[in-house]
Amino acid sequence: IWTAGLFNTRLHSSLFLQVLLVFAKEDSQSNGFCWACEKANFRCSMARTPESALECFLEKHHDLVIIDHRHSRHFDAEALCRVCQNVWVLTCVLFLRPDREEASVMPLINAGFNRRYVENANTMACYNELVQLEHGEVRAQFKLRAGNAIFTALEQSQEAIEITSEDQVIQYVNPAYESIMGYQQGELIGKEIIEVPKSEKNKPDLLETINSCIRKGKEWQGIYYAKKKNGDSIQQNVKITPVIGQGGKHKDRRKGSLDVRSTTSRGSDGSSQRRHSSMARIHSMTIEAPITKVINIINAAQESSPMPVAEALDRVLEILRTTELYSPQFGTKDEDPHTNDLVGGLMTDGLRRLSGNEYILSTKQPHHMPSHLTTPLSLNDIPPRIAETMENEDSWDFDIVNLEAATMKRPLTYLGMKIFSRFGVCEFLNCPEATLRSWLQVIEANYHSSNSYHNSSHAADVLHATAYFLCKERVKQSLDPIDEVAALIAATVHDVDHPGRTNSFLCNAGSELAILYNDTAVLESHHAALAFQITTRDDKCNIFKNIERNEYRTLRQAIIDMVLATEMTKHFEHVNKFVNSINKPLAALEENGGNNDDESVKNILTSPENRILVKRMLIKCADISNPCKPQELCIEWAGRISEEYFAQTDEEKRQGLPVVMPVFDRNTCSIPKSQISFIDYFITDMFDAWDAFADLPNLMQHLDNNFKYWKGLDERKLHSLRPPPE
C-alpha cells in the first residue's frame, strides 16, 4: 500500500480533514482505513480506479490520499502519485506488504512518497497511522503554506518592513522598503545595521533606548528618523517587535541587540540550529500509554516542523517530564505569604520530621456507638424542634448551624436520615431503615466533636451540599442511581475520624497513619478505609449487607474514589480534567449550533470516564463550598477553620515540629487575607467550571458578595472575622 498526503491551504481541523482511499478491491485493509477515518472524524472517499481517484481528487482536493499498491496489476501507484503531485503539493506515505520490501526507495521518493507503512489490517494500527499523519505531515504542510502566505503578505505590504538577526545583520527587506528608502535588496541583505547611514535628527540616546527595550523582550513603538539612500531624512512611525526563543530568552548567546525597523517588522533568529528532542523516542510498544502516544505525536510533528515550532515542542516535552502537570507555580513568600502558606499547607505532604516527637494517631479502635444512641430513632421520632430546623433542607441557604444547636452537635444522623430517605437509599441498598439509622449514628460517633471545623457538622454540611448538587438537571443527566447513592455515602464519611490536623502535620510528626499510608493522601485514605471497617464489622449497621457482590464492588470503588478526590494535592488535576473533558466539549456543541445536540450531550455526560469526573467535582465543590454560602454561614465556617489551623500551629510550636502554615498564628493572622487567598487560588476557577456545568447563579452571587466582604475588611487593615461594632 502507498499513501500520499495532499494539503489544502484552508484552516485545518480534524472535523474537516478529507481522506481519499484508492483501493482496487475491498478487503480487511481498506475496511481498516475506513473505520480509522470514521474514528478520527475524517471525511473519507473511496475510489476503485486511477481515473475515478483523479476525478474525485480534482473535485475535493483531499488532504490525504492512500493508494493501495499491493496488487500493482490493477494500476500504477507511482504514476497516480506523480499526476497528483502535478496538481497539488504532495506529502506521501509508502505502504508495503511484509514480503515485498523494496531494495531501493529512490524511485518511490522520486514519485512523491516519503513514508513507509508495512501492511497491517489491524484497525488500531490504521487509526494510529492516520493520527500521526495528521499531527505530523498534514499540520506541518499547513504551517508551511501559512508561512508562504505570510511571506506573500510581507511582499505585498505597503509598509516598509526590515528584518534583522540578533547580531544586527539585515536578513530581509520588502519591496515597499526598497521603494521608500531607495535601496535595492542586494545592497542591504547580509550587511550590519551600523553600515547603513543613520539620520542625525534622532536623539543621541534613541538607539540605546530601543536596543535596551528589545533586549528585555519588549516591543518598542515611536517616532524614528531614517536616512534614505539619497541622503534625505524621513520621519517614520515605527514599531519594533523582538522574536524571542524558547523559555523567553534570545537564542543567541552573544546577547546582541535586535534592531528591527518598521511598522510591522519582526526579528528573526536565523543562526540557531534546531536541537533534537532530549526525550528518547519510544517505538514498537504493544500497549501504549496515553502519554506515550502524546510524545510520539509530538516527535512526529517535530520532524517536518519549522525551527520555532520544533523548539516549542521541545519545551512541551520538557514539561511532560514532570509529574506535577496540573499544579500551577506561584511566587515567592514575599509576594503573598498567605497564599503560599495556605497552598503549601494544603497541597504538600509535609517536611521531614525535625524532632523526636511523634504524633500517635489511629492505634485506638474506632469508636462504638454511645450507649444513649443504641436505640435508633426513626423519622417519626424526630423532635418537632429538630424537624422544624430541617424543613428547608433542600434549599442552598439551609442553616446547618441551627441544626447543630438543635441536635446538640449531632446533626449528621438527623439530616442523613431525611436526605437518605428523600433519595430512596434504603430501597436501593435493600436495607432496613433501622440499619441505616444505626450506621449514621456510628459514623457520627467517629467524628471528633472537639474539632472546631472537621466535625460531624461539617460532614452534615457537605452531605447537604451534595444532595443539593444531585438535584441539578445536568448532574441528574450524568449520574445513575448507584452514583447518587455513592455520592451521598462518600459525603457522609469523607472526614470520619479527622484529627483536626492536616496531612502535612501528620507526615512531619511521623504519625502512625502517615507511616501506614506512606505519607500519601494520609487522611483521605484513612477516612475511606475506616468507613468500610466501621460499616462491615457489625451486621446491625452494615448497609451493604443485602446488595449483590458486583454492585457492592462498584459502589465501594465509587465511594473510595470520591473520598480520595477531596485531597487537595490533586485539586488542579481534577478541575482541569473536568474543564477539558466536559466543559469545553459542551461549549463547543453550543457554539456549533447544537447539531444532534441531545445525543451529543448525552455521549459527553454519560461516558464512564466523565461520570467519574462529575462525581469528583461534585464532592470537591461540596467539601469546600463555604465561600459560596450565605454570608453569616461563610463567616462562621471561616472562623472555625481558622481556629483549627491556629490550634495546629500552637501544637507544632509546642512539639518543635516544622510550622506548616506560619501565617496561621492566632496573634498575627489576618483572616480576611487568608480567605481572599483561598478564594482566589482554589475556589473561583473551580466554581466557575461547576457553575458552567450545573447552573448555580445563587452560589456565584454569594461568592461575589463574600469576596467583597473579605476585601472590604482587608482594605480597612482588619484581621478579624467581622468589623468592630459601631
From TrEMBL:
Domain of life: Eukaryota
Active site (catalytic residues): 454 (proton donor)
This protein's pathway: Purine metabolism; 3',5'-cyclic AMP degradation; AMP from 3',5'-cyclic AMP: step 1/1
Domain (PAS): residue spans on this chain: 146-217
CDD domains noted in UniProt: HDc, PAS
SMART domains, per the entry: HDc (SM00471), PAS (SM00091)
Family matches, as InterPro entries: HD/PDEase_dom, PAS, PAS-like_dom_sf, PAS_fold, PDE8-like_REC_N, PDEase, PDEase_catalytic_dom, PDEase_catalytic_dom_sf
Protein name as catalogued: Phosphodiesterase
Source organism of this protein record: Cyclopterus lumpus
